[in-house]
Specification:
This protein is an alpha/beta fold. The chain is built from six helices and seven strands; from the N terminus they run ββαααβββαβααβ. It has a five-stranded mixed β-sheet, with helices on one face. A two-stranded antiparallel ribbon has the order 1-2. α1 crosses α3.
């Protein structure tokens, strides 16, 4: 802590800077509402973690980016059962389900690895699947019981042997 004194008055002019709260490391002391706020700011409002760190610091909360990342992961783990139910509802229907894949960089080993991300949407649900590789068995996992129409592009993964074997109807 800095100790400061006024150069003009030698008596009573000493001030000691206030002690800062230590930065928050780990996510054990984070409440549910704060965790949800972090996830909404990051994913819904597209706010990068380094900006969130600066914003929270202005409000007196010292937290580092790695902690924000861990908190997001914990929220994702908490919501995973709900996402599985949404995916099961999508693939258990006989309606239209849209699907599209794109390769994006994510935080994965090795650092900033590319992963194939598939978006499935329909019935008011949007489900993201992050795949290590883009191959038909991974992309079409769960489509065996699907009896609707999958709307996607003409990628070979959508139209190939696996989709024909499971009887997937693909609308382009």
């Amino acid at each position: 802590r800095h100790k400061m004194a006024c150069a003009r008055c030698r008596r009573g002019g000493v001030t000691i800077a206030p002690m800062h709260d230590p930065p928050t490391y780990g996510a054990s002391s984070i409440g549910a509402s704060f965790a949800v706020d972090i996830v909404v700011q990051h994913y819904h409002h597209h706010m990068p973690f380094h900006r969130l760190v600066a914003i929270y610091r202005e409000d007196g909360v010292r937290i580092d980016r790695s902690t924000l990342c861990r908190i997001s992961g914990r929220v994702a783990d908490t919501l995973a059962p709900i996402v599985r139910v949404m995916e099961r509802e999508l693939l258990g229907s006989d309606e239209v389900v849209g699907m599209d894949g794109t390769s994006i960089k994510i935080l994965a080993h090795p650092h900033c690895a590319r992963r194939e991300t598939y978006v499935l949407h329909g019935r008011g649900h949007v489900v993201f699947r992050v795949l290590a590789r883009k191959d038909a068995p991974r992309v079409l996992r769960g489509f065996q019981r699907f009896r609707g129409v999958a709307v996607g592009d003409a990628a070979s993964v959508h139209l190939g042997e696996v989709s024909q074997r499971i009887g997937l109807r693909v609308g382009l």
